[in-house]
Amino acid sequence: MQFSAVGAPAMPAGHLFYGGDYNPEQWPREVWDEDVRLMREAGVNLVTVGIFAWAHLEPTEGRFEFGWLREVLDLLGEAGIGVDLATPTAAPPPWLTTRYPDVLPVDERGSRYSHGSRQHFCICNPAYRSLARRIVERVAAELGSHQALRMWHAHNEYACHVPYCYCDHHARAFRSWLERRYGSVQALNDAWGSAFWSQRYSDFAEVMPPRMTPTFANPSQLLDYKRFTSEAFLEEFLEEKQVLKAARPDIPLTTNFMGFLKALDYFAWARELDVVSTDNYPDPADPRSAALSAMHYDLIRSLNKNVPWIVMEQTTSRVNWREHNVPKSPGQMRALSYQALARGASGVLFFQWRASRSGAEKFHSALVSHSGQASPVWAEVTQLGRELAGPEPWATAKVRADAAVVFSWANWWAVESSSSPAHDLKMQDQLAWMYLPLYRRSVTLDFASPAEPLQPYQALLVPSLYLVTEDEAANIRSYVEQGGTAVISFWSGIVDSRDRVYLGPYGGPLRPLIGCDILDVAPLAPADVVEVEWEDGTKTSATFWLDIAAEPQGQQGKVLARVTSGPWAGTPVVTASQYGKGSVYYIGSRLDHDGLQRVYDLVPALRPGPTDFGSRLTDGVERVVRRSPDHDYEFVINHTDNDRKVLLATPGYDVLGERPADGTLPLGRRGVAVVRHG
Ligand code: GLA
Which of 184, 193, 245, 459 could form a disulfide with 605 if both were Cys (CB 3.0 to 4.6 A apart)? Predict the structure, then answer.
């Protein structure tokens, strides 16, 4: 059975979830019957219900109306459609904010948000917390034993629109958190380096959340504020979890993540989930969208490596919230759905079932469009629903990555700090720089926290791990010492957990791994392109940043490439070194594609390996393998609007086409094939 981490089978073995957010409260009763009929036609087997229904479940304070929602669940249950029952806490009703106006969050300038959209609450507000708890308790008590229930869903996209609040409640909670963390105001002063700009505190009561300041706020304060906020949201989530699990412990529980959401440390959050789920809205107008979407899914798969994951939301075609909302092209929704499945998802769902008639998202695509079944989207979603009706032989097969990208939220928060020598050094750019060339090579990557066991991987990519604790660095060092390979980029090992610089040549506790001494750094002017020359005379280039590195001494590394133009000509820019039984490649600049490939070529786990079956792909085709004890399933996905071919070196069986596959496998525009090997 799937999702066996918890008691009740959410779905029979080999079956995938397919469905979406269902908001029946937006529609008259008679539409519900049609909804259920159409859901069956579309192959929908799971819908998320109740997500923004607080005002309908508790129309005035303390008066509850659950009859309508029970009726919805009855209809769904009778039709064999499972329910992912959500708590409605992401959108407090107007009575709540009218009666308790200080629930509304405050921005850094002290302006209070108003009611009128959603996510308008301060997570630390006591009134919000007790009213949220009460509605969650009612949801659990009223519907927790309903036979249609398959999954609990807490809240919606925690910290999505208002990640940071600066109100007095938040300030009080922040101070208590600091007192617990540091114990004394002296320790706080020490941690925050408050000797700078006369920021020395004499009492915790003087500490503020980082409200608007004349110029840059204290970076250690900002970092702690981010840590605190992620934990404050988590605390509320855990309260919801406790209530829901007390009512039905056998039902798996999730909350929908948002991929690379900066505000929440999803590694910490994912430990609390039975199913990790995510909302993914790649921009069809961005040529890198398929690659970035792959990176999103690899992150999600990696957050908790012991539980299944699903796509909780994607769009059938357009969103409404970009400046200019380009639709998915025909077939793209299916191709991107298979991308998630190829990367290990146990289901794909959408926002939302039926396109709204009113409201802020009425022009967001849905499974049922304004034009109903006449819409081409309907044909696509019903086709995909039929295809995924399962059981799928590959649904329980695993994605296995031999290499991982080391990533942490604390580092993300710190590395983008305003005290950085390059404010335009963005973590996601660094990730994309190292990840995308490997995506194009069909090398599947996991993400790994620097604190987790790293031994399962043959190679690690370490993009700008600016903040690294002593323990994390020891973990990475011991990984290499025991035979692992690390590719470490510039601006790594710079500060400790408090954002205090490790003195000496840069690298701090990672220095033993770095093949040379980094004496200073030089962010390059935007137009600067420096020449990089390799040992064999090959020339590539680099941009953005340059470490000013000394010539390696004694047992330090071997220089593989140097900068040969500009004021720092002669500086080592790529070094190779040995540490214990392992190896390290250090990269001191943003190498261009060819330069980076030269480093990757030196690392066996970063080259297409035996499990790629020797298939030759053309541009725009993605390949990922899911492996089961008996078979390997090679997913090939054409992300272009043109026909593509895959040349198969190893014959297999085309699972979707139900025929043997060898030689040339044609893929039409946005086409997908799943080739079974073994
Ligand atoms: C998010 C939310 C949904 C909806 C969609 C629109 O994922 O969770 O409620 O607003 O975005 O794309």
Answer: 459
- Complete DSSP assignment for 151-183: EEE-SSSTTSS-----SHHHHHHHHHHHHHHHS
How far, in Å, from the CA of 351 to the mean position of ligand 1? 6
Residue 279, ligand 1, Cβ within 6 A: yes
| Joined tokens for residue 487 | 């590719």
206 is catalytic: no
Ligand 1, residues 361, 362, 363: which to mutate, most atoms within 8 A of Cβ? 361
169 φψ region: left (φ > 0), alpha (ψ -120 to 50), beta (else): alpha
Could you tell me if the CB of 361 is within 6 A of ligand 1? yes
Q: Is 157 in the pocket of ligand 1 (CB under 6 A)?
A: yes
Pairing of strands 529-534, 539-549: antiparallel
What is the torsional sign of CA 481, 482, 486, 492?
negative
Residue in 233, 13, 281 with CA at minimum distance from that of residue 125: 233
Closest residue by Cα to atom 10, ligand 1, is: 361
Of the candidates 637, 584, 635, 596, which has an alpha carbon nearest to the alpha carbon of residue 612?
A: 635
Q: CA–CA separation, 64 vs 49, rounded Å?
A: 17
Q: Determine if the pTM surpasses 0.90.
A: yes
Instruction: State the distance from the centre of ligand 1 to the C-alpha of 104, rounded, in angstroms.
Output: 21
Q: Give Cα separations from 177 to 48, 113, 125, 144, 232 (angstroms).
A: 34, 25, 15, 34, 9
Closest by Cα among 270, 267, 214 to 5:
270
pLDDT digits (tens, 9 = 90+) for 278-299: 999 999 999 999 999 999 999 9
Of 58, 142, 157, 240, the active-site residue reads 157
Radius of gyration of the chain (CA): 26
Nearest CA-CA partner of 511 in 544, 542, 488: 488
Give 467's DSSP letter: B
